[in-house]
Design brief:
single chain, little secondary structure, two-stranded antiparallel ribbon, 2 helices, globular, binds iron/sulfur cluster
Length: about 100
């Protein structure tokens, strides 16, 4: 069996350019609803206008669980279900990156 490797033109926007390490935690600025109990610390939770639980966000717009120096999630093992489902390089991810003007090329 042989495998053909197709080289993409250098200006092609390959999804492989999209990683969290060349982002600025864009998706951690979105509102995150808590729909299951994954053990998020209570001090990081607040209520929305309908009484539902959401991740607290600070004045800079990021989730309160983001480490402001590393931009990493400080509660990764206990992060909400929605955060677990948000896939790197998905359509939603690319949309957030575009909205925040992140382009690794
Ligand atoms: S928007 Fe995408 S690339 Fe950026 S931190 Fe979130 S999952 Fe990672
Ligand atoms: S809980 Fe973690 S992964 Fe989810 S938005 Fe906050 S910092 Fe990001």
């Amino acid at each position: 069996m042989s495998i053909n490797i197709v080289e993409l033109p250098s200006d092609t926007h390959s999804p492989s350019n999209i990683t969290c390490s060349n982002c600025r935690a864009c998706c951690c600025r979105l509102e995150v609803m808590l729909i299951t109990d994954t053990g998020v610390p209570k001090e990081l939770i607040e209520k929305d206008q309908w009484g539902g639980e959401i991740m607290k966000r600070l004045d800079d717009g990021w989730c309160a669980a983001v480490d402001r120096d590393t931009l990493m999630c400080t509660i990764y093992e206990n992060r909400p279900w929605i955060c677990r489902e948000f896939e790197m390089a998905s359509y939603e991810c690319e949309t957030e990156r575009k909205d925040n003007e992140i382009d690794p090329r």
